[in-house]
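Input set for joint prediction.
Command: fold jointly, output tokens.
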Amino acid sequence: MEFSKDFVWGAASSSYQTEGDREGRGDSIWDEFCERPGAIRNGETGEFACDGLRRYREDVHHLKQLGLTAYRFSISWPRIFPEGRGVPNQEGLAYYDRLIELLLKEGIVPHVTLYHWDLPLALEREGGWRNRDTALAFADFAGFMAQHFSDRVQHYCTLNEPQCFIGLGYGTGEHAPGATLKGSELFTCAANALLAHGLAVQAIREASTKSVQVGAASTGKLCYPLHNTVENQAAAEAASFQIDENEWWFSHTWFLDAILLGSLPPAMQALTDCIPSEDWETICQPLDFLGINVYNGIQVDENGDYVERITGYPRTSLKWPVTPQVMRYGLRWLYQRYHMPMYITENGQASNDRIYLDGKVHDLDRIDFLHRYLLELRDCCSEGVPIKGYFHWSLTDNFEWNNGYDERMGLIFVHYPTQRRIRKDSAEWYAGIVQSNGRLL
Ligand code: BG6
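tokens >
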């Protein structure tokens, strides 16, 4: 069995995690955060990352060789507007022009994400996501980019995972800018992110001369059933959207209910209270697709209670559990709630990959992970859930935020001291799956 004829196979990356070249742009909140003692494992930073800015041709060459037809990457806001707004940096624009032109020449469709967490530091100094003006500045940036790319880019994600940049960035402090806000201060950040999304959708549509597909990339808790009974499935579906009070931010619900349904459940009243009623119309804009970043899920029983994981359960090097069933069930629940076509905008696993004596990178565990998750994804599609495409996270190993460079998630290994790229076994395996449109799974 195959995926649909027009199924999109791609890989993903983000600007701060790969580009390097700090001199060529304004600082982002991550530059400052990385300088904080203890913030990042081994004290590493994204200053050089994968040197993507200079090596993008090589990376596009790998995409092409693997037979991928789409590339999801993000635009570094401070590379375009070093101060967050004002005069655009022509060299920054020229870089993305070169990248996009090369992709198009190779027949690879660019999927542009406008915010993958690298907020200009200058805007953080004005309050960052605490400040409503950040939403307005983001919309200006989004509209500017859409106008600039209007003859070349047709797919946009506004925000990547507000769950993480709000929850981890302003709540737990594990991510930049490392704030630990509580109560209404944190909800205000979330409200500003929702507004930023809505304003950006409007700005992108207004600025584009050709038809565009606009969405956002969401992540969060998803549950799957212990038993395949109607009752247990219903319990898993309900649990997926239930808000965990202490971790409300790690739910699809607050973000997707707001932007797609135009309201929030009673458990999110505190967030509703932070949203001026006149903002709702802006926040809830018609979208063309939903991006879902999916890594793992939680098993629940008929009562919706979490099932304890077995001793020694399978997990990745980040200790994230391997739960392929989340693909089949979680995506179904999302479709039943939001009725939107979806792209898997991220999926993959972290490993401590290394170069073997034969000079290759044998990452059997990643192949097994992908095989299991893609089988479940295929089942999900055959059950009628409209999945338009799959982007592996990530194309190359990169700067994994507070985990630094220890964790490798790429199809392509990066030897950081030399920046040499080596295609892992999983890349070759994935290329075979792509070529057969999933028939070989
Ligand atoms: C996703 C992010 O949450 O997870 C990616 O969108 C990130 O940018 C990926 O790289 C892996 O997470 P981590 O914590 O290892 O960086």
